[in-house]
């Protein structure tokens, strides 16, 4: 039942976060979206008017901003519960360049956007999650947590840390709160960007052929996986690859 259920999603303004938020709104959930992109959040406010949605501009990698956001969320919930938190925020581009030129500030930006943000948001959300009869946290990791492309050090480390945080939180927060991770593979987010950045997919046959499932992923695939993990009350501490089978297929250069 979706009645009176509330989900909070970080990085909610575009891509996977936007699709997930709209998916749960379509199921009748109340939704809270956090993001730095105020323009995209304004589009979502127009799409979901009324008191069933709350959108806040927030850099979730910064403790002060998270604290201020949760003051507003607490007021909006009015003593009600959060049922699910999706830690989806992060820097989308994994490429950081050669290791010898990677500056500490750049490294820290990737870590904060994904790993630190998940810690800060989960910590602030705990009192609200504990009000729910059944609550869950879903961390959006990446297949790059377990496999790498060249020069993606910071992104890969952030996602690997998120995987480890997932099983650590599952052990410590259960049974009241289940914690799982989703590792997206190649997900085409073009149709789920704000209006000024929206694009239509144009994938080559060899792009599709990399995937045993026969296609590139869609943000809707991740949204459906979040729904599954929230409903699956015997699943916790797990890392679910949603990648069309790409990570199990050996690919050779020809």
UniProtKB/TrEMBL annotation:
Residues spanning the membrane: none
- On whether Membrane is a keyword of this UniProt record, the answer is no
The cross-references to Pfam families, in alphabetical order and at most eight, read:
adh_short_C2
Q: Name one GO molecular function term.
A: oxidoreductase activity
Q: Sorted alphabetically, which SUPFAM superfamilies does this protein's record hold?
A: NAD(P)-binding Rossmann-fold domains
Q: Which CDD domains match?
A: SDR_c
**What family, per the record?**
Belongs to the short-chain dehydrogenases/reductases (SDR) family.
This protein's name: SDR family oxidoreductase
* Species assigned in the record: Qipengyuania vulgaris
């Amino acid at each position: 039942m979706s009645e009176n259920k509330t989900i909070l999603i970080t990085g909610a303004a575009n891509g996977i976060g936007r699709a997930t938020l709209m998916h749960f709104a379509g199921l009748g959930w109340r939704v809270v979206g956090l993001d730095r992109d105020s323009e995209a959040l304004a589009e979502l406010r127009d799409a979901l008017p009324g008191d069933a949605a709350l959108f806040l501009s927030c850099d979730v990698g910064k403790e002060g901003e998270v604290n201020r956001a949760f003051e507003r969320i607490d007021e909006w919930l009015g003593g009600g519960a959060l049922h699910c938190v999706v830690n989806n925020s992060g820097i989308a581009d994994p490429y950081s360049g050669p290791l010898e030129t990677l500056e500490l500030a750049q490294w820290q930006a990737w870590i904060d956007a994904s790993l630190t943000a998940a810690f800060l948001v989960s910590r602030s959300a705990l009192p609200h999650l504990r009000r729910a009869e059944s609550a869950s946290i879903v961390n959006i990791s990446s297949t790059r947590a377990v496999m790498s492309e060249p020069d993606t050090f910071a992104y890969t480390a952030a996602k690997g840390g998120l995987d480890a945080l997932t099983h650590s939180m599952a052990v410590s927060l259960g049974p009241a709160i289940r914690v799982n991770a989703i590792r997206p593979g190649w997900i085409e987010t073009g149709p789920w960007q704000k209006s000024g950045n929206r694009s239509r997919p144009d994938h080559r046959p060899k792009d599709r052929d990399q995937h045993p499932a026969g296609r590139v992923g869609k943000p809707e695939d991740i949204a459906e996986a979040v729904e599954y993990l929230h409903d699956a009350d015997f699943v916790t501490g797990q890392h679910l690859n949603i990648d069309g089978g790409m990570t199990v297929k050996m690919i050779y250069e020809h």
